[in-house]
Amino acid sequence: MKNILEKYYLNEGGYVFKTDISAVPKRHLQSTLNRSLKDSGMANVTSHLVGNVSKLYLGDVDVAIDWDDLVKLFGSTGEKKDFWAKADKFMKKQKVESYTLNKGLQQIHVLSPLVDKKGKHLAGVDKDGKEIGPKGMVQIDLMIGNANFMKDSLKGAEGSKYKATWRNMLLADILSNTITGDDQSEIKHKFQINWKTGLQYVRFKLNGKSKKKLNTKTVLTNMDDVAEYIFGPKYKFKDIETFEKIWKAFNSSSFKWKNKRKEIIKSYTQTLDRMKMELPSELNESYTPRTYNMNTHEIQKAVAEVVLENLQNKDSKLAKLMHARERRADKCVTENVNEFIDETINILMEHLHIEKEEVISNIDKEYEHMRRLIWKNQN
User: Fold this and answer.
1) What gap in Å lies between CA 5 and CA 175, rounded to an integer?
2) What is the value of pTM for the model shown?
């Protein structure tokens, strides 16, 4: 299930139609969505906007659509093959410009006009609001499952430094490290989250390193209940809706699997690295030791090379400055390496008179990559 989650997030945001896709200004989001659902014949189906809808211009419009409602609407038996056959037959009769079925991710992609509250077809715009064409067409991704569960499970992480992906990946890695069962038996048990249906109980059989699922049963379909199960009775979804809140709950005394924290963090770090996602600074602060086995001269050399290459500024003064920092790097065996690196960043930024926010952001991203390499070497 974790792999399915990764597949979903890696494919998130991809456009499937061979035309210029307009971003959706937030002020026209609801009117455009209403038009799309009406043209798709789904105006009366249970649906919820999901993902991050706080931006002024949205490149992605994700909508949770209820499976059971669609089964009735399509006249399907509910068996998957029949469901998608009936879905295709139904969509061919609707007024949408175009559509495509994504059975693997359980989605229907719909091409719809960008319209205002009066139904006027608007010009297309990019993510900065600049006009890209006289008639804007947008892609609406209809994500099929338990709509009321997805309303929270796929909700954006407003007010967080990290997107909801970081929150959900941590939840998935917590559950993937909580396998139980008799040591003498090949039969094991675990819980996993299917982000479109709910928390699932899984029985599987171990055969060497491979796993064979015996049966899977959805047991919780409310994210409040999921939060309570993992973190304790005082927790609801609002208490874990961002990575920062989950991190706090993860380190609380009520967390169910305290003795598994290190394994969970290692697994989470590997997941983020595999997906080329930034390692949250909270992990460094809490779990990165004060000393490292890495050659600290190599660390500082990497620092200099990354920044010089990133800024395309190879002046001699900066080279001398970095050599001076390298001479101090020997002390990192006993000092806090993170503090040393941060101090070096500040010196570099001051020397180069960096003011542009996007440049600083690029540097921070490169340094996070370096910290991740340090973390992997340590573990």
Assistant:
1) 13
2) 0.71
Residue 108 lies in a domain: yes
Higher pLDDT, 301 or 115: 115
Number of H helices, E strands in the chain: 14, 12
In a domain, residue 158? The reply is no
143-157: per-residue pLDDT in tens? 999 999 999 999 999
Nearest CA to 303 out of 345, 333, 339 is that of: 345
CB 91 within 8 A of CB 112: no
Nearby residues of 188 by Cβ (< 8 Å), 6 or more positions away: 179, 180, 181, 203, 204, 205, 206
**181 and 301 in a common domain:** no
Of 293, 295, 281, residue with least CA distance to 339? 281
Q: Is residue 327 part of a domain?
A: yes
pLDDT tens-digit map of 274-315:
888 888 988 876 544 333 334 444 555 555 555 555 444 445
